[in-house]
Amino acid sequence: MLSGGDGSSDQPKLFGRAAASGHITLLFTVQAESQNPLNQGSRGVGLCIDPELPACEVIANATLGRGTVTASGDFADGRLHSTVIEEMTHLIPQTADYDWSFEQICRLPIQQGFGLSAAGALSAAMAAQRALKLDEVESKIRSFHIAHLVERRLSGGLGDVSALWVGGVDLRREPGCPAFGAGSSLGGAGVVEGWHDEIRMILAWRTEAAQHTSSYIDDPDWKRMITESAQNLLPTLMDGDWDLNRWEELLIAATKFADSSGLSSDANRSELLERAERSSSGHHVSSHLCMLGESVVILPPLNTPLSDENIAEISSRLKEEGLHCTVATLSSDTLR
């Protein structure tokens, strides 16, 4: 569990903590051409998720100082947290008057397509603002603004932050950081909507970390194949209301995208899918790649939720196939 520090310094400490959900992208475009990082991102669809506990949790401690940043736990090299503090300082100059230490725990594996860099950036920004005792509503908006900029600076996910703004099953209609409303000077041109239902799912992954997202979204050939594939599928998904009646349509589109983009055959992902499909054979579920990890999500139809018995049997088979797995649920309260 996370702790609040060892209390070894006589210097008064500020303290804040926050938690965020993860995000699975099922299909997406790459749209990072804008010179304004707030308008870079992706169109696409995905799922905001949590295992039994929040996908990511961060504690921030601060003492008066000169803006140094240290980190422990996951993302312990401090690059993510340093970038959060840099972006936060642009909006809240007093941030630089403190030395910061962050402790982060992720309850899903890093770099496996679960949106944990976005979740970490969101949690760190919110925890730091809570340490400074800033207004909760304004802090939440700033956290999403900051996290989007951090993701773009570090070539992380294109649409995870935008998706987490709405929660549930997201449809990102326009790329970029979400627009936060007429009264806010923050955010970008992003347009996103989501719906929520009680959905349990199984996540499975290989033990090895996958290629970093940047190896795909910064590669011209991959960017073209990914974007062309998604653009062929998105018009139908964007037509009409975005609600739970689109679930089966979404799952079909996700499978088509994985195949037509070439992602299902890269990094032996087709073999990973085969393992998942063998493990879930006989159950009324479908397996889908989590972009851009080497992981899958096993999903039921809405009218036939996964039972405890289903989960136990599929999980046992996945472990026999040499995969790690856990149960997750759809999340609507994505930053808390």
UniProtKB/TrEMBL annotation:
One GO BP annotation of this record: coenzyme A biosynthetic process
EC class, as a word, reads: transferase
Which transformation does this protein catalyse, written as a reaction?
(R)-pantoate + ATP = (R)-4-phosphopantoate + ADP + H(+)
Entry keyword Disulfide bond: no
Cite the GHMP kinase N-terminal domain residue spans from the record: 106-168
Task: Please give the SUPFAM superfamilies that the UniProt record associates with this protein.
Answer: Ribosomal protein S5 domain 2-like (SSF54211)
One Pfam match, given by its short name, reads: GHMP_kinases_N
Q: Which InterPro entries match?
A: GHMP_kinase_N_dom, PoK, Ribosomal_Su5_D2-typ_SF
Q: GO molecular function terms here?
A: ATP binding; kinase activity
The alphabetical list of record keywords is: ATP-binding, Coenzyme A biosynthesis, Kinase, Nucleotide-binding, Transferase
Q: Does the keyword section mention Mitochondrion?
A: no
Could you say which EC number(s) this protein's record lists? 2.7.1.169
Q: In which pathway does it act?
A: Cofactor biosynthesis; coenzyme A biosynthesis
HAMAP family noted in UniProt: Pantoate_kinase (MF_02223)
- Please state which protein family the record places this protein in: Belongs to the GHMP kinase family. PoK subfamily.
Please describe what this protein does: Phosphorylates (R)-pantoate to form (R)-4-phosphopantoate in the CoA biosynthesis pathway.
Which protein, by its recorded name, is this? Pantoate kinase
State the organism of origin.
uncultured marine group II/III euryarchaeote KM3_13_G01
